[in-house]
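hey m, so remember when u said the tokens were messed up on ur end? i reran from scratch. heres the input so u can diff it against urs
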Amino acid sequence: MMTTDKTSALMLTALMVKYGIRKVFASPGSRNVPLLIAFTRNEDINVEMVVDERSAAFMALGYAAVAGEPVALLCTSGTAMLNYMPAVAEAYYRHIPLVVITADRPSEWIGQKDSQTLAQPCGLEPYVKRSLDIPDFAHDDDMQKRWWCNRVINDALTICCDSPKAPVHINMQFDMPLNALTDEDCVDVTKIASIRPSGKLDTGAARELGRRIASPHKVMVVIGNMPPSQRVTKAVMKLTNMPNVVVLAENLANIHADRVLTQIDTAIAKVESMSDSESYKPDTVIYMGGSIVSGKLKKYLKKNPPCQCWYVGEEDNFIDTFQSLTLRIDMEPDVFLPQLASAMYPHRAESEYADLWYAVHDEINARLHKYLDKIAWSSFKAMAKLLAAVPSRWNVELSNGMSVRLAQQMYAPQIHRWSCNRGVSGIDGSTSTAVGAQLAYRHGATLLITGDMSQAYDLTALGTEQVTNRMRIVVLDNGGGNIFRCIPSTEALPELETCLELGMRTPFGALARDWGWECMEAYDEATFDSAMETFMSESEKPCMLIVKTDGKYDASVWKDYFDYITE
């Protein structure tokens, strides 16, 4: 059957059917014609046409209250939406699930004296649990738009139907023509399942999840940054005894267990260069924790999507970092992982999958040591020497940029606690964050490893009265924003030195000494080793070590390292 050619309208229609939303109370209009066509020509959806939008909304409210199921509303653009407000407010406080769909003109025409336009996105807040604004796009547009549209509609429909139930608002922009048709009514949509237990998983549900990923199923557990947790670590230790499970956890994940692969960037680079790389692809990915530093891992899993991807964590939104989410498990990892490990353990069976990855891990470390022996003085070598010397009870704080990326290439399992501002990954405030951390962390010193640009952003933190003698800072000073020499999008730009790198030549040492810090500088291995003796010892003052390196050579060492690993 011919239907609308608006991809977003077809995706919404298909997902509504999958979520069991079969009744729509709609009002006439022109801007909502694509959705009227999509709904009325879908045999699984029943449309009730009501001229007055206010009345339609209350009809939908009454139907949903008695039927005990979500109901959709549909209106055209302009003030039509505002007539929904009384019924939507009533539904919000009665916990009645309404999917409020408003058609809209393209956003560029808002405020341009075009007819029937007003600011519709978020226009029903605060009486909806979620507001979406979906632009028009063609079916042959890039996959990113379709992935995003699928994810956010799943998110809204799940929130509408989950307890406490409440209305959600989906604003759909449609450009002209509105009546174009196609016979390609099939669109790729995926309903993302959710598990939201109150407390622990039901034993039967846990066992079913364990069976679903039992050997020979190849499982990759990915753990982003999170605070240390003994429960998570113990569960990971149990999972790493499963021959079909590999655990990839960056240093920031604070997992203290053997057989955990922490140097993810280099592992991915190595695997992709191998002739049998297909053997390393996971069937299932289980992701938890904060954002992943490794861009190579994100690219790898998007290029090689698993059959299923689970996200574990209590979040307001669906987290689909790898663009393959199939199941959201709305539980804290320290509750879910022990249950999963116990559920999987009875299904242990022979598999070479974990050993394949851990062989890569061992080879990387062997080649890392050889690479360190062959390179000259650089921030890469300084980071390796520094982390090898850090006492186990120190708290390590990292700034963003190259500091955190360098640290992720090193194997330093003795370090008790790692942290970095990876929520939005900014370089501002790194020093102040570390100063606050050292006030709370009493088990040893707090070490901030930062770059010269990050330190320059937050200089005043050095002079605050909250700084104690438990504070240590290493500044990797290579003359500016060295990360721009290390990423493909900027390394070859002619504006690199004039607009991006921008070294500030800040006198860190003089400023730190004026504020009562003990300050040292290192220009090569000899001066670094000499300074470290004082830096690592107990002191009556906070200590700063400024590591001077050449930025151009640092960038070449960074890029050559991945070539060396994959030779």
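this time it looks ok to me. The CA atoms of residues 45 and 64 lie 15 Å apart. if urs says something different then somethings off w ur setup not the seq
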